[in-house]
Amino acid sequence: MDWVAGVAAIGAALLGPPEQTALPPAWQEIALRVAGPGRPDCTRYEVDGTAWPCLPRFTLDQSRAVNGWSRDGQIGFTRGAIERLTADEFALLAGHEIAHWYLGHNGSSRQAELAADRLGAQLACRAGYDVASGSNLFRFLHPDRHHPARATRIEAALRSGCQAEPGE
Ligand SMILES: [Zn+2]
Question: 167 in a domain, yes or no?
Fold first, then answer.
């Protein structure tokens, strides 16, 4: 869980896990472009999980909220995200969630969120998306104790996008 973890947790408790379906092709294409050649330490995908996959698997759930999450190489987006975000905003959200996986994050902290914002902006920029325009994404942010303030996150994205190679 990520941006609106509290709301999502309540929904999961009441309704069970949201049904996951494939991300529609137009957004799958954006997410794959942002993911680039894949996780730096990947080997290849094995169904039994014995090797790190190189690219995440992207899914969609039907929530109306604008949200994304990342867990063990599976990255989910909400229907609200694909319906309400521009391509630049979605690319930045995808970059953030992909970055959590590339960076090996387990769980959320203010430091992890900023690191994912920075690498995510680099990934989105390298894929040809406009990070400044995409940072309007943060209008959907719900600040909480795990997440830095909106202005801090926008600054992290703007200062990182296109100014360094991914992974630096
Ligand atoms: Zn995050």
Answer: no
Q: Let me know if residue 9 belongs to a domain.
A: yes
From the CA of 61, how far away is ligand 1's center (Å)? 17
CA of 38 to the centre of ligand 1 (A): 18
CA quadruple 54, 102, 98, 59: dihedral sign: positive
Q: Is residue 113 one of the residues assigned to a domain?
A: yes
Q: Determine the Cα–Cα distance for residues 81 and 102; give it in Å rounded to an integer.
A: 21
In terms of residue numbers, what domain contains 142? 5-160
Tens of pLDDT along 108-167? Answer: 888 999 999 999 999 999 999 999 999 999 998 777 777 788 899 999 999 987 865 554
CA torsion angle 121 125 126 129 (round to 10)? 130
**CA 92–ligand 1 middle distance (angstroms):** 11
Question: How many domains are contained in the chain?
Answer: 1
Q: How far is the CA of 8 from the centre of ligand 1 (A)?
A: 14
Q: Calculate how far, in angstroms, residue 69's C-alpha sits from the geometric centre of ligand 1.
A: 7
* 45 CA distance to ligand 1 middle (Å): 24
pLDDT digits (tens, 9 = 90+) for 151-162: 999 999 999 878
Model confidence pLDDT, tens digit, residues 72-106: 889 999 999 999 999 999 999 999 999 999 999 98
